Amino acid sequence: MQPNTWNCIIKGGLVVLPDRIEQLDIVIQEGRIQSLMPYQTASEELPLPVIDAAGLHVLPGAIDIHVHFNEPGLGAWEGFETGSAALAAGGITTYVDMPLNGVPPTVKPEYLILKKQAAEGRSYVDYALWGGLVEGNIDQLEGLAAGGAAGFKAFMSEPGGEGEEIFTRADDQTLLEGMKEIARLGGVLAVHAEDEQLVSVLAAEARQQGRMDAIDYIHSRPVEAEMLAVQQALSYARESGCALHFVHISSREAVDIIIAAKKEGLDVTVETCPHYLVLTEESMLTQGSIVKCAPPLRSRQQQEQLWEAVREGLIDIIASDHSPCPPAMKQSDDFFAVWGGISGGQSTLLLMLEQGYHQRGIPLPQLMQMLADQPAERLGLSHIKGKIAEGMDADLVLVNLTEPYELTYEELYDRHKQNPYTGFTFSSTIVRTLVRGNTVYQSEQGLVSQPVGRFIARQPGGVVHG
Ligand SMILES: NC(=O)NC(NC(N)=O)C(=O)[O-]
Ligand SMILES: [Zn+2]
Ligand SMILES: [Zn+2]
Question: What cofactors are annotated for this protein (predicted)?
Fold first, then answer.
């Protein structure tokens, strides 16, 4: 048997397939789904350990393509062990770590190797790694792709950050030339789309006038800044032919611009995050810096329009943008100065089940398209991850949709436990998380295995396990 893979049968669960839900037995061999069999036809034949899933739903393990775990260099902010433990407890079985907020940032092949070494043997779930596109590193992109980078990330606004070699904003020329190179490599570029010119002028004006509260921060990063940057990035995608992914889109206006480009035939995808669907600018006024993010939380009306986009199937991917920091970096009277980032990695699936399925009646297969199938598709992982089908990795989450679960401070596995939904009671409980057939988390016992996660190297034209 390959290391880190397991054999078992998951019996009688309500299995969420891409287009329907069916009661099935799932036979797992060598960490892969060997067969999906009608209920009660598998367990007698095969001498395998049986996991009884009667009364539970079996979902494909969620795939979070947008987390910041801060290693190498800034493990005190999060780190692979605590970050991936939080994801395992939240039913996430694969993540893709962002190239910034670590030291050094992942902008050279040798830095990608350092990150792989930092993660080796320390992740509870499988992972891939983003490379970065920054000013002056276009000649490094081919080496990053050869090293297995899942794709590339660029910022159109200043990302901020710490360390002597921080991740910088991609100016227009870097963005366009970088997209041409990424298109040549057959890769994808993920973009933080806010117009730096507009947000920096508005922030400077506010600070000159001594206006440095949460509301001033919110007003300094209006929806117009997101729309401007989206339009600019799309114009470069048209010119370069580069596949484009917009991270953490916060407004329906930006979604509509992206959908129009999709209809033109551009290869473009759109991601939003649970915090834009669950929290509003009011939350930033009441909960303060723990929910500071860029783009900022929007109005209730914006939120409902974003939910409509989710329901209409216009949102390709839901990702956490788990972006932690030491608590001290969240404390300042100047709201512009505190770290921007929300630590929601453990609660993405719970929130989307709660507000998407329970409250808005969005079917589970449709939810899991955004949480698993389409994230895998975007990063060339979809022949091994992202759905429940024969031959796929046995990355599964058993959920009890009728058992309430309180996300207490003690239940949080991330390092600084700054999850804004702490204390919230959900209608569903994540009962068990399996990575390639191995149970890594169980609701009663918590983490129940060593870190079994593996690096997934993306090779041009396909993916092989690292
Ligand atoms: N430097 C960051 O981690 N930034 C992140 N922070 C947010 N979104 O507030 C991001 O993804 O832009
Ligand atoms: Zn961002
Ligand atoms: Zn981010």
Answer: Zn(2+)
Contact 456, 127 (CB under 8 A): yes
Q: Which of 155, 162, 192, 317 to mutate to test the pocket of ligand 1 (most atoms within 8 A of CB)?
A: 192
Going by their DSSP bridges, the two strands 268-272 and 50-52 should be labelled as unpaired
CA of 191 to the centre of ligand 2 (A): 7
Kindly state which CATH superfamily the domain 8-58+391-465 is placed in: Urease, subunit C, domain 1 (2.30.40.10)
- Residue having the nearest C-alpha atom to atom 1 of ligand 1: 159
Q: What is the CA radius of gyration of the chain?
A: 21
Domain regions of the chain by residue span: 8-58+391-465, 61-378
Closest CA to 387 of 379, 399, 375: 375
Say if residue 416 carries a ligand binding annotation: no
Render pLDDT for 72-129 as a digit per residue (tens, 0 to 9).
Answer: 999 999 999 999 999 999 999 999 999 999 999 999 999 999 999 999 999 999 999 9
Cα(341) to ligand 1 centroid in Å equals 5
Q: ipTM for the complex? A: 0.97
CA 77 to ligand 1 centroid distance, Å? 13
Q: Please state the pTM of the whole predicted model.
A: 0.97
171 in a known ligand binding site: no
Q: Whose CA is nearest to atom 12 of ligand 1?
A: 294
Residue-wise pLDDT tens digits, 353-377: 999 999 999 999 999 999 999 999 9
Establish whether 248 is an annotated binding residue.
Answer: yes
Q: Output the CA 193–ligand 2 centroid distance in Å.
A: 8
The SS3 assignment for 447 reads strand
Classify burial at 82, counting beta carbons within 10 Å of its beta carbon; exposed 0-12, middle 13-18, buried 19 or more. Answer: buried
| Residue 41 tokens, joined | 């036809």
293 lines ligand 1 (CB under 6 A): yes
Tell me, which fold does domain 61-378 have in CATH? TIM Barrel (3.20.20)
Which ligand neighbours the alpha carbon of 295 most closely? Answer: 1
Model confidence pLDDT, tens digit, residues 1-12? 455 558 999 999
Q: Is the peptide bond before 451 cis (omega within 30 degrees of 0)?
A: no
Do 352 and 278 form a contact (C-beta atoms < 8 A)?
no
**Distance (Å, whole) CA 304 – CA 278:** 10
Question: Which residues make up the environment of ion ligand 2, defined by Cβ < 5 Å?
Answer: 192
Position 233: which residue type?
Answer: A
